[in-house]
Amino acid sequence: MDFFAFVKPKNELEGSAEKQQNKPFVPEEMWVKCPNCNTLLLTTDMEENLHVCTHCEHHFRMTSKQRIELLADRDSFQEYDAQLQSTNLLDFPGYDEKLEKAKKKGNESVRCGVCTMDSVRTVLCVMDADFMMGSMGTVTGEKITRAFEYATEQRLPVVICTVSGGARMQEGILSLMQMAKTSGAVKRHSDAGLLYITVLTDPTTGGVTASFAMEGDIILAEPNALVAFAGPRVIEQTMRQKLPKDFQTSEFVLQKGFIDAVVPRSALKSTLVKLLRMHGYEEVK
Amino acid sequence: MSNPANNNTYPAYEKVMAARDAAKLTAVDYIRSLFGDSFIELHGDRRFADDKAIVAGLGMLHDTPVTVIGIEKGRNTKERMDRNFGQAHPEGYRKALRLMKQAEKFRRPVLCLVDTSGAYPGIGAEERGQGQAIAENLMEMMTLKTPVLTILIGEGGSGGALALAVADEVWMLENSVYSVISPEGCASILWKDSAKAPQAAEALKMTAQDLFDLGVIERIIRQPKAEDKAMFESLRLLVLRTFEKNAALSDAELIEQRYQRFRKIGTSHIK
Q1: In this predicted model, what pLDDT tens digit does every residue of A39-53 receive, in sequence order?
Q2: At the fourth CATH level, which superfamily is domain B4-262?
Q3: Which of A118, A116, A192 is nearest to A154 (CA)?
Q4: B3 pLDDT exceeds 60?
Q5: Is A210 within 8 Å of B135 when comparing Cβ atoms?
């Protein structure tokens, strides 16, 4: 578990026992229950609808692979630094096992590369909740820093889709330092007059919120994503305060003035492309 | 229940207890000892409020005017309530940034004194953008065109401490700690048992010596006592010498040095 991994239930399949009783011959992965409206959806319908509930528009989490397919033009994503691997730098108890398990699902909590979006060239970094809840370790920080350094050198914009439980505590102080390191790289890119857009997805919390997630020139969020510094459970436990309804959702932080817009997934790519073009980034032939 | 801090198998946790010791000196003590009567406190973020968890202002180190920013926990119950136990709100970090920008304008060096269990995790703090306030400090401090030095004088709790620690050099008192999460928080998340905090403190590598060995800090400072005038004079000279060294650099050199300082941390294993 990572610092904020417990903040919100995962949108995982629930009530599978009940389902098996009712539909004993149907493999359960054919169906998925919407955690928001409890409607049972055909997985293929949900996937075709960009992983959004066809009934209530709840946005399911996407893997980095799915999100790259959503945003990058077909086959345009060239991944960089995929070879960088997290290691147990501090000999933290249990971290080796956690990493081994996580690496079965992907090679790091972020994938970075260059792609085109409607033929506009951009650096794209996509975080992945499947890898230790998108927590930021030294390799995560290094990949994001390299992505910004590359973008600064090549004069490219950067788009980052965030999903993170925060800093990865198994890397101790070194994970905390990634907040400063990535922020420094964002600042250099910004000082070079280049555009940085963040897309906050569910959940974006902790050290990622308190660094590059909140440093975009333009900050977008998917509907109803958890966006927080301290997660709601932490606040409830430590402060014994009852939290207001819809506290720390995308809509809440929009109303408080901390993000620019809430954009549904169906309009995400077109919105990004519009913004890129308005900043003078042109189609590559 | 026995106090785990008494158990010598967990020396890191003893340091945690020492860093939290209510009898130790707090930021206002250090400010008084270093700057004496020259200190003038400056208040407010000009946007929302004055956060009393952060004490900031101007003072003279010998002949040099310095902007000093400290996180203050308070020295007794009343003060601690008043100071919100040294847990700053966004307006505290914004006050700090305002005064750092002012220091840049007037070419004054900045001294930050950090002692916090973390940024305040509460409703108002979230509503006013705690994450955004910390993020902005990290970004802006990275290119602040004046020397910045941070000393951890007690607890260095996560992002709330880092928001004042993007500096040219970071020093720690021998009994201070600096960590991504409290050992109690770490133990309760990982092992569902906050009583395992002593083990977590070892695992997190959060003592001054650990951080020095990891290349995260430049110097470990002997723990001073309030009446130890000679010790404070040598600290004053050490701070001044560091400011002078960095003030001699061009803006571009200073900022490049600060960027590279953070750029290289934890990269030795990365190919």
Answers
A1: 999 999 999 999 999
A2: 2-enoyl-CoA Hydratase; Chain A, domain 1 (3.90.226.10)
A3: A192
A4: no
A5: yes
CA A215 – CA A192 distance, rounded (Å): 15
pLDDT band at A284 (very low <50, low <70, confident <90, very high): confident
Helix (H, G, I), strand (E, B) or coil at A43: helix
Strand stretches in chain B, DSSP E: 40-41, 54-61, 64-71, 110-116, 148-157, 169-173, 177-179, 219-221
For domain A62-278, give the CATH number.
3.90.226.10
Confidence (pLDDT) at A177: 98
**Residue recorded with tokens 């054919």:** A30
At B8 the pLDDT is 62
Model pLDDT for residues B72-88, shown as the tens digit of each residue: 999 999 999 999 999 99
Place of tokens 């409703």: B123
CA distances from B107 to A84, A114, B257 (A): 41, 40, 18
Above 80 in pLDDT, residue B208?
A: yes
Best of A108, A171, A181 to substitute, by most chain B Cβ atoms within 10 angstroms, is A181
User: With bands split at pLDDT 50, 70 and 90, how would you rate the model's confidence at A238?
Assistant: confident
How far off is chain B from A235, nearest CA to CA, in Å?
6
Beta-carbon separation of A256 and B263 below 8 A: no
pLDDT tens sequence across A82-118:
999 999 999 999 999 999 999 998 889 999 999 999 9
> In this complex, do A187 and B140 lie within 8 Å of one another by their Cβ atoms?
yes
Radius of gyration for the alpha carbons in chain B, expressed in angstroms and rounded: 18
How many angstroms separate the CA atoms of A215 and B246, rounded? 27
The dihedral region occupied by B84, where left means phi > 0, alpha psi between -120 and 50, and beta the remainder, is left
Maximum C-alpha span of chain B: 57
Spatial separation of the C-alpha atoms in residues B258 and A188, rounded to whole Å: 12
Burial of B253 (0-12, 13-18, 19+ CB in 10 A): exposed
Would you kindly state where each structural domain of chain B is located, as residue ranges?
4-262
Long-range contacts of B6-14 (CB under 8 A, 24+ apart): B7/B198, B9/B198, B10/B198, B10/B199, B10/B201, B10/B202, B11/B202, B11/B207, B12/B177, B12/B183, B12/B198, B12/B201, B12/B202, B12/B204, B12/B205, B12/B206, B12/B207, B12/B210, B13/B183, B13/B197, B13/B198, B13/B201, B13/B202
Decide the pairing of beta strands A31-33 and A120-127: unpaired
- The residues spanned by each domain of chain A are 62-278
Q: How much is the pLDDT for A27?
A: 64
Q: Any CB–CB contact under 8 A between B170 and chain A?
A: no
The mean pLDDT value for B130-156 works out to 98
Distance (Å, whole) CA B136 – CA B70: 18
Q: For chain A, positions 258-277, list CB contacts with chain B under 8 A.
A: 258
Give the Å distances, CA to CA, from A32 to A28, A38, B107.
8, 9, 60
Sheet strands (E) in B201-257: 219-221
Note the pLDDT of residue A25. 58
Backbone angles phi, psi at A21, to 5 degrees: -65, -45
Residue B140 and residue B26: Cα distance in Å, rounded? 26
